[in-house]
Design brief:
The protein is mostly beta strands. Helix content is 12%, strand content 35%. The chain has a single domain, classed as Purple Acid Phosphatase, chain A, domain 2 (4-Layer Sandwich), CATH 3.60.21.10. The chain contains three helices and ten strands.
Amino acid sequence: MTVVGVISDTHGLLRPHAVEALRGVSQILHAGDVGAPEVLSELRAIAPVTVVRGNLDRGGWARGIPHDAVVQVEGVSIYMLHILAELDLKPEAAGFAVVVYGHSHVPRSEVKNGVMYFNPGSAGPRRFKLPVSVGKLMVDGTSVRGEIVELRV
């Protein structure tokens, strides 16, 4: 089994609790609104990172970050973007098992038409009364299970 860490909406703040929750994962997916290049450097010290640009990722450091990405883990194809409403393909038709996204700050893991839609929530500054969280995807061959990890901050 491969464990993939999923994080989003750090907005320049990588909490020690998030770092601890992601320790031991084989790779990290950051679903945008990184906020600062230092966040990516700190995450890369844990595991390889795939990142997509969020609507607030601006400036020279963010120019090279793509708006979407495709990641293959074992037999599972994962499509990444920041804002789910901007999804312009049918993931089930394209062969994706998982769509990872952020933006809303609301953690969610749900399956529609055989595709898991996974938002780890926000790991950065707390917004309203929403939880601060990260996620994990447990991939075993062609099956995948998602877990939301609420951080006690």
